Description:
The structure holds two protein chains of two kinds.
Chain A: H1 4-33, H2 54-62, H3 65-96, H4 102-114, H5 117-130, H6 137-162, H7 165-173, H8 178-186, H9 191-207, H10 210-215, H11 224-234, H12 240-259, H13 261-273
Chain B: H1 26-51, E1 54-55, E2 63-64, H2 68-75, H3 77-110, H4 116-124, H5 131-142, H6 147-154, H7 171-195, H8 200-208, H9 213-224, H10 226-241, H11 245-250, H12 262-273, H13 276-305
Antiparallel strand pairs in B: 1-2
Amino acid sequence: MISRGERLANYVILTAFATFALFPILTIVLAALGPDDSAASAGPGFSVAGLHVGNFASAWEIGRFGTYLRSSLAVSSFVVVVSVVLSIMSGYAFGTMRFRGQAVLFYLFLLGIMMPSEAIAVPLYFDLRALGLIDTFWSVALPQVALSVAFGTFWMRAYFRAGSRAIVEAARIDGASHWRILWQVLVPPARPAIVTLTLLVFMWTWNEFLIPLIMVTSESLRTAPLGLAFFQGQHTSGFTLLAAGSVIVATPVVIFYLFLQRHFIRGLLQGAVRE
Amino acid sequence: MTTGTRPRRRAGPGTGHPPGEPRRVAYLYLLPAFVVYAAFLLYPIGRAVHLSLYEWDGLTLGRWAGLANYAAIAADEGLRAAFGHALVLIVFYALAPLAIGLVLAAILNHAKVRGLGFFRTVVFLPQVVAMVVVAVAWRRVYAPDGTLNDLLGAVGLDALTRGWLGDHAFALPAVGVVGTWFETGLVTVLLLAGMSRVPVELYEAARLDGAGAVKEFFAVTLPSVRGEIAVALTLTVIAALRTFDLVYITTRGGPGDSTSVPSYEIYHRAFGLGQVGSAAAIGVTLTVVIFAISLVINRFADRRES
């Protein structure tokens, strides 16, 4: 049906675009694996098969990425666990129950999905400062829980609404409490939806920049992207270690993406298309 | 900005199952989520509106300013420029990815291309990389001794080389191209999902009517993915309006104010210049603009569908 010329043109266009998409990423990966170009470089460094993997160790040491990854891990774990559990509960209420003010409350949650975090970060900073909560774990984590819970409620509600009503009715007739129905009847088959939500919230939290930038001053609380931004400002004598640091910061999410790609794509697309 | 950011969703009243039986316990299930949400999102936006009516440096006592901070957005040249730059970015973040995405998705949907899975993985990859990392990578590409100039030199176009991000004329488009790079994968995969749902019979009917590939695209493909186009535009336009990380890392609004954008102005005014009221007013304005744009895009899509 398709001529050879057309087929060839298609491949050329697709290859060109794939190259464009990979180009900046390859630039940084290749720089990270090249010989260290900074003035502070202490010799050839550790390399395997011509790839200077020792750069990662140097960046880890000099850029203190160990500390930053630890903070990122702590913040992300907290935000993911709390917002997924809260979203499951609120999604359960919106998706399977009927109560007064339901529509108004749901629209209030939807508001948060569209809200730019720039608008809330400024007042939050000054209010948290007045409470002495600035530069704490909570000032970084809780605003992100609020942002994630807005989407999570929307996501889990859609899932529970689409689910089979009959199972819930049957469990109720068997005398199961609403608490048991949620955790023992509805949640187990909801695992794929919950995994998708978990991955999305993890990605958003890990990659978040503005909230830690505003809320954090002490180095021990810096998250990975924030640490990278500071490292970029200080380490100006070469690009190799900055590239190595960038790879370190990006890798956790990219690995999840490569193995669980379907969840990321489905989450980002279905979340957008649903309803 | 967008990867470190929660996506903006198209929202509308649900039309699925009827909600279950009345249960008052629902409030208890909602309570924990609502408490965090109200304290860290609803209350701050109310405070933003409140702060936007004052002239306040963040330290001393504020002074009532009425709507002066909002009037300044229309009058202040720097702020007008920032919103103008955001409009330019919409071309790069939303319109260019839509055009490229339509072509790529049409090819992928139409021709049985081998390596579809690999291609999808690759074009979607930018979406999951932290924007800070993306910005560091592109800074390298655009640097005076960077990859782009190396490439231009290699093909004999040395005359075109420059420090792209330091150039008054090129800095904003250079930032915009990063947006195109970032959003095209999302738009392509979104459109592809829509196109794969178009029944094959429609294409066969068009072929029987003697439509060529181009006519078929405009008569069959394009109308069937209107909904996806609306979603793609909503997501990418909002991403363009919210650009922050990228500008913060690559240009800090410079050179001069040639790449200043609203989100960066919010940060800069609140924490750099001590103009908290003005920053809050920009934030509120940005929120209203984002709500309005997503409403308009979705209304438009709905009307044309019905």
